[in-house]
Design brief:
The complex is a heterodimer of chains A (87) and B (923).
Chain A lengths: L2 E4 L3 E4 L4 E5 L10 H9 L7 E7 L7 E7 L5 E7 L6
Antiparallel strand pairs in A: 1-2, 3-4, 4-5, 5-6
Chain B lengths: L13 E5 L2 E5 L5 H7 L6 E2 L6 E2 L12 E4 L6 E5 L9 E5 L25 H5 L4 H14 L13 E14 L3 H12 L4 E4 L19 H10 L3 E3 L2 E6 L4 E7 L11 E15 L3 E3 L12 E3 H9 L8 E6 L3 H11 L3 E7 L15 E3 L1 E8 L4 E8 L2 E6 L2 E5 L2 E3 L2 H5 L4 E4 L4 E4 L6 E3 L22 E3 L4 E2 H9 L5 H8 L12 H12 L3 H4 L13 H5 L16 H5 L4 E5 L2 E6 L7 H14 L2 E4 L4 E6 L3 H8 L12 E7 L5 E11 L2 E6 L4 H15 L6 E4 L4 E7 L3 H9 L9 E6 L2 E6 L8 E7 L3 H14 L3 E2 L2 H11 L32 H4 L10 E8 L9 E3 L8 E8 L6 E8 L8 E6 L4 E8 L14
Classes of the chains: A mainly beta (87), B alpha+beta (923).
Amino acid sequence: MYQITCPHCGPRAQTEFTYERTTDSVVDPAGDTHAAMQALYTRANPMGLDDEIWRHTYGCRAWMVLTRHRVTHEIRAVKAIGPEALP
Amino acid sequence: MSGPSRSATGDETIPFTFDGNTYHARPGDTLAAALLANGVGLVGRSFKYHRPRGIMTAGIEEPNALVTVGTGGRTEPNTRATDVFVYPGMVAKSQNRWPSLSFDVASIFGLAAPALGAGFYYKTFFGPAKHWMLYEGFIRRAAGLGNAPTEADPDNFSHKAGFCDVLVVGAGPAGLKAALAAAEAGKRVMLVEQDAVPGGSLLRDPDPAIDPAAMIARIKALGGEVLLRTTASGYWDHNFLTLTQRLVEPGAVPPHGFAQRLWHVRAGRVILATGLIERPVPFANNDHPGVMLSQAVRSYVRRWGVLPGKRVVIATNNDDAYLTAEALVAAGAEVVALLDARAPGSGPTAPAGVQVFYDAKPAKVIGRKHALRKVTAVIGGSEHSFDADLIAVSGGFVPVAHLHMQAGGKLTWNEAAQAFIPGETPQACETVGAALNPPSAPAIAPAGKAKTSFVDFQNDVSLADIDLAWQEGYRSVEHLKRYTTLGMATDQGKTSNMVALSRLAEKQHVTVPEAGLTTFRPPFTPVTMGLMAGAGARNAGAHVRRIPLHSLHEAHDPIWQPLGYWFRPRAYPVNGESLQQAALREARTVRTVAGLSDVSTLGKFEVSGPDAAALLELVCATTVGKLAVGRGRYTFMCREDGFVNDDGTVWRLAENRYLLTSSTGGADRMAHFISYVRNSLRPDLKCSVVNVQEHYAGIALAGPQARAILASLIGAEPPRHMGYAPGVLAGVPVHVLAASYSGERAFEIHVEATHAAPVWQAIEHATRAAGGAPYGLEAMELLRIEKGHVVVGGEVDGRSTPHDLGLGGMLNKAGGFIGAAGLTRPALSAPDRNNLVGLVSLDGPIPEGGMLIQRAGQSPQGHVTAAARRILEGGAIALALLQGGHKRHGEELIVTSPTRGEKARVRVTAPHFYDAAGERYRD
């Protein structure tokens, strides 16, 4: 079970979080069918670092992007996203 | 058979039973030690061939001595006799024998061993099916270990979280030293030990310079936590470990209700001081009672004061077994021969009077039930026999690298010890102690007949089975494992994997590391299911939430139905009505007068802000932006792939304020989805989403009289169909939404949950006065089926598109909603998709879930999603999803449910059986 450092709450157990998707599988609602299908079904799935969207669902409910290594499970970086994180 | 030192432990004895016979143990005895002390050498029968088995080890790696401990719900099968400490009144039984342990009918399988070799099950599948039918019953009766208890476990199991700077696994000399050093450095320390006493190898080979008890006391004094009878059973990501702690021994009554505790520990650093497991030696009949690992023999002699044999042969390829010779001689046993497989002069000096034979290895043993009679050895190429009742064997040592490997670690090969040593690990974890330095022990080719030279004792896999698998083309260690079931028993090959791997490497003419290794998976030792469930057992796992009006419904003693997290009334029977009778009466009341129902569990979201409409136009597949203030509409939401996800209604309460409702069961999913859209996809939108599902109680009021009843209660004309108006009812502010699910004129009255009771009471009073009644979920189902409204989880099954459900015309033509792109795929508008249709029965009731066919023997063309009867008239109706159904109205089909043996002839119709034009609720 991972330990994820929530940008708002600090280090917490993975059970408090829900995984949403990788950033490359975000479907742009304004995009065309091809782009949507690419995002939904043709994922990069790299054997290395990948950016993933997670939510601290059973904590502060905030959203974040984890840069996670898919082999070692190392979490290199956590970045808050959402309206509050906009510049 | 008791050794001379046993009297030193005092006169206290602990009575216990084994297979109905009463014996006595000494304090601190494991069941294995107590059985050996009482001269019981035969304790079980093997998995496949029912061969007699005894006690081979003194620890958790025991493959043979599996027993059932405890009675009733506390029965624990497959408990290692070496890993359970005797307590007063303990009841233990042997396993896999009939009618008795010493006379077992199925041991005849041992004679049939050639037929039951590797891949036996697999091969039976190639023969005629009737042969398998014959084997199956035979195998099911004969094969197996202990039986699962049939009663519920009366005990509780607790879960606990733990945090520490340093977690040390193993309280042997290395673990004690590491834990004490960390504690003295000011670290928060947890030290776990699976044994009941600390010391590890010191319990077998005491060192006057190390005092485990004093070290434990010091660690505790420095604030360290020491957990005995606790096994680190799993090593997971980010230094997270699960520990299983026995609070009482298996089968014992726990004084505080808790039998075991599961720890979830996040450790800063992990130190693995897990030591070594001794390797057995393959030779003919090496599974017989009286064949024991050398260190185990030493443990029984020194720790428990038990002599497992009086005339002992020792067989070894390393120096460690010479210590066993010393221990045996000191305890008064006769060491008949020490067979050292190495060249002359290799070993240390043997104790006086012990004859050492070099280039010597065991080939065969012959035994009685409880012990051996004779050991045959090959010494320098010629056979010699020894009269002996015990053989202590040592084939080298295997570092316990399980946790290290679960942590993602690597292994390095130590040729001198013929062992894999823990190497690097990607986690903050290191191995210390004996596991890093196994004694030198060269590879020795087995001398005995392969067929009865057992490797995996628990699964009855012999050297011959490994050879057979090789001969049949199973080259990879992973295939070998699956084909022979090697290492797949409850001991996970702790004593067998390395022996088997050596054999495979020998066959392949490669080195052991080249032959490869199978995966080490948690748990290290078996974990009780109840422990994993913890407080989740006995329905305590999920929260039971109560809807705000629960107690008001309770007064009517309804039939309850679980729905989402809640219970909602399914029907309110009166005068002894059945569920069906009550539901039909309630539905008829709605159709003819009025009824009220609790709809509090609906998903509800308040969306506000200048961009509220823009967010809703993303989430909803229908238009929202054009909605006037005070108006609402039916809506549905799609997934990104275009399939319908959920449905509900959306209402514009004020200029920049909307209320969106969704299904009860999908509410959590919808909350997450909306949050994703708002926060991740469009954080730029100026809006706020609040999940108000449980903030509001919802009451549906439906029926021809609903409008008049509500008008009298709010003192105003209620809104027309799909209109919204705020109001005050029974002195409480309410939202009135004019929406109809039942097909009648209907309203949803939403009210703050804490103020809902007087509102319900007022509506119920007025409704009853008009001749109406409350109605439950069953009546609601009758009403919605007749009306042809879809339900999420029924017709909306994750595979239906808006078009399939006849909702295509409502899609937002401008696009831009989630799922718009997915919907453009040609397959989502193919003509042969399953479309929503109605079915009218031409004879009897329509079986729910039944398949739609044109004639017998045909593949199903669709299925019934919901079946009912007409409410006011007779006749069975149903909703169904049918291939190309939109164009098949009028067709006659058969609904068949082979599993229930039910069948009905039906006519396909439009999915509306009642007021298709919607005249009953429109103005």
